[in-house]
Amino acid sequence: MAVVRQRLWAPRAWLDGRWRDRVLLGVGVDGCWAEVVPDVAAPADAETIAGPVLPGLVDAHSHAFQRAFAGLAERRDSAHDDFWSWRDRMYGVALRITPAQLHAIAAHLYLELLAGGYTQVCEFHYLQHDHDGHRYADPAALSHALADAAADAGIGLTLLPVLYERAGFTAPELRADQRRFATTVADVLALQGAVRRPLVNAGVAIHSLRAARPESILALAERSAGPLHIHAAEQTVEVDDCLAATGCRPIEWLARHAPLDRRWHLVHATHTVPGEIEAVAVRGAGVVLCPGTEANLGDGLTDLSGWLNAGVPLALGSDSQVTRTWPEELRWLEYGQRLGQRRRNVSAAPDTEPSTAARLFERVRAGGAAAAGFARWGLQVGARADLLVVDASDHALRGLPADHLLDGVVFSAPARPFARVMVAGRWCALRDDGIASRFDAAMAALWKSGVVSS
Ligand SMILES: [Zn+2]
Fold first, then answer.
1. Minimal CB count within 10 Å: which of 2, 9, 202, 347?
2. From the CA of 317, how far away is ligand 1's center (Å)?
3. CA contacts within 13 A on the Cβ side of 58
4. Reduced to 3 states, what is the DSSP secondary structure of residue 233?
């Protein structure tokens, strides 16, 4: 057994998908759980945790720079506004941001994500080059900015450098306003190995089928290791364009032509037919859902029951950063289904898990770990020693029967549900005046440079 460097004892903790009482948690010298034992009295040498303990979750899809844009795209000044007009405006931020600003904005975001219950974030990282589209002296400059930000905040980081080659299925070049994104397969492989630091790992990503050539997609899949993420079927326009160009829907194309397996994580997967869900399930690939962003952008509703019942690994992503806490993402995920179907507790499984919150939480706990490349995740021996302490004294949670605490966290929404957060055996500071003031300065500079148009 690993040497224990620190013992914690919690009155309640979420083990194996349910609450257990009086739980001893031992942190090993490697920052992973060395012992997890329920139903024991608190040893004299253990730090007693004041409230119930949950595992941290993985935020499996983040574009950190888009945090600078949250709240700035909620006005319409023309007849029509949709994903594509939002994207044009978002590119305005992408084109202006500097490495120092990315560092400042991401550090602030990562503190918010920690406070929101995420202890690992997957950066789907496509902003690579300088304002003119030239490589930085260190081509991984913006990857290092993200890693610096993660270190400042204390969150774990999975870097996913993105293959981005073209503007569309029939547009072989990038648009001028996509010049900071251009990468080849060789670039992505070099970026994957460029940042080696504690609490940082790496996989790779493909922006989407429209933004990468088929031969490049297959080459990257063959030559890379670790998790492989791709945006898929977020917009009906993308599905229509894919059908016109290839004769297949996007996920259908991936199932037929790409080596889909457990490495692959399809981000959004909003517009599907049952055969595509079945194909993803058979191949073992996962899906990353971003309910807050998908609602904000008017993407549509995924076939959540289809994914759940097929056993497909599911994860959550904060994506455009309009939502930065997982209880709110889970609430949006379930409420979208309820509104669409005019039913309640759509995600519950009466025979095996009647709690909607518990079923969704367990699915995204496991699916998020896979998306970030972790074999073990949660309050179990060998997993990284991450945890969340629920503030059960919050006005929103007081008086709940103990077994309903997770239901309350998700559906009866405290503003700040987590009192303390631990990553790799260390308590995180959830507020940092230096990070906040650097964020304010970066935002003010971006506003001055013209990001806010009205
Ligand atoms: Zn995205």
1. 2
2. 8
3. 32
4. coil
SS3 175: coil
Ligand 1 midpoint to CA 310 (Å):
24
pTM greater than 0.85 (yes/no) = yes
Contacts of 275 (CB under 8 A, 6+ apart): 252
Query: Which of these is catalytic: 268, 271, 391, 394?
Result: 268
324: its two tokens = 């930065």
In the annotation, is 268 catalytic? Answer: yes
Q: Give the tens place of pLDDT for each residue, 85-144.
A: 888 888 888 899 999 999 999 999 999 999 999 999 999 999 999 999 999 999 999 999
In the DSSP assignment, the letter for residue 68 is G
User: Are the beta carbons of 320 and 296 closer than 8 angstroms?
Assistant: yes
**Which tokens hold the place of 98?**
């500097």
Residues forming a β-bridge with 364? none
Among left, alpha and beta (phi > 0; psi -120 to 50; other), residue 163 is: beta
Q: What is the pLDDT of residues 187-219, one digit of tens each?
A: 999 999 999 999 999 999 999 999 999 999 999
List CB-based neighbours of ion ligand 1 within 5 Å. 319
What's the one-letter identity of residue 10? A
